[in-house]
Amino acid sequence: MENMNQLQKLMQLGQQMQSRMAEIQERLEKETFSASAGGGLVEATADGKGAVRSLKIDPSAVDPDDLEMLEDLILAAISQAQGKAREQLEAEMRQATGGMPLPDLGSLLGG
After folding, report:
1. Taking the mean position of all CA atoms in its chain, how far away is CA 39?
2. What's the CATH class of domain 2-97?
3. For the segment 46-56, what is each residue's pLDDT rounded down to a tens digit?
4. What's the pLDDT tens digit per position in 61-98?
5. DSSP 12
6. How far apart are CA 103 and CA 89, in angstroms?
7. In sequence order, which residues have a C-beta less than 8 Å from that of residue 43 and are 6 or more positions away?
8. 20 to 30 A Cα–Cα from 85, which one of 28, 69, 79, 107?
């Protein structure tokens, strides 16, 4: 009987943790994380799940003879914004789970 009570408590704890994780994900979807590259020539903004929501490019960054540099700046800004979102999600999940090891959070970020 004691084992049954422990199992029930464990299941309740799992449900509470799952609910808390869903709350965190929902809240983070509404937050934005911005990063820039090239001294601010390119700025990307991602939501808490890592989806890119906006991209701003300074006109001076557009050189028809060097599109590769612009592409690199765009990728760098996007990667940094997504990294910030991932770091925030991981930090909040660690806090919610009391530091318990977490599975790969890529699936939570849509990846």
Report:
1. 23
2. alpha beta
3. 998 889 999 99
4. 999 999 999 999 999 999 999 999 999 988 888 887 77
5. H
6. 13
7. 34, 35, 36, 37, 55, 56, 77
8. 69
**Sign of torsion over alpha carbons 37, 42, 47, 49:** negative
Domains of the chain by residue range: 2-97
pLDDT for the residue numbered 109: 52
Count of Cβ atoms closer than 10 Å to residue 18 Cβ: 10
Cβ–Cβ < 8 Å for 61, 73: yes
CA 23, CA 19: separation in Å to the nearest integer? 6
Q: Name the helix (H) or strand (E) containing 75.
A: helix 67-96
What is the side-by-side order of every strand in the sheet holding 52-57?
A: 32-37, 42-47, 52-57
Asked if 28 contacts 48 with a C-beta cutoff of 8 angstroms, the reply is yes
Both tokens of residue 17? 């943790």
How far apart, in whole angstroms, are the C-alpha atoms of residue 52 and residue 80? 11
